[in-house]
Structure to design on (142 residues):
């Protein structure tokens, strides 16, 4: 089992590492998912997420893609885009992925061995937590 601490890491770097580990057959746990950074202009990033969330199928709206608002579920869905989800290997890899906000008590002892990513903060960025709040998620008011 591999544990990744995504605190302050850029999403693209986290997702490539996680996707490669999943496709190799590893069980992967990502903690601090709400602190992942997406680089770029925050307003444009939020607008892209809002457009994606508003997609509807005219004939049957329940057949439209569903994008979550909660940070850990949003990150898990974003990792899905890095996997060949429509093949059996991608679906099996996606089942081996666990994403958590903060650090659960069951993994606190193993955090010393967790893989940490370089904290390279770009000039313009937004966190997953801020995106989730813009999309309408109201949990964990800090």
């Amino acid at each position: 089992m591999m544990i990744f601490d995504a605190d302050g890491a850029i999403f693209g770097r986290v997702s490539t590492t996680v996707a490669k580990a999943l496709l190799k057959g590893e069980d992967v746990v990502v903690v601090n998912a709400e602190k992942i950074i997406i680089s770029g202009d925050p307003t444009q990033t939020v607008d892209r997420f809002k457009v994606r969330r508003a997609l509807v199928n005219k004939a049957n709206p329940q057949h439209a893609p569903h994008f979550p608002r909660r940070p850990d579920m949003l990150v898990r869905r974003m990792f899905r885009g890095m996997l060949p989800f429509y093949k059996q290997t991608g679906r099996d890899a996606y089942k081996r992925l666990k994403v958590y906000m903060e650090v659960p008590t069951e993994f606190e002892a193993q955090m010393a061995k967790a893989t940490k990513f370089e904290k390279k903060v770009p000039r313009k960025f937004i966190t997953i937590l801020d995106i989730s709040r813009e999309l309408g998620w109201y949990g964990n008011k800090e």
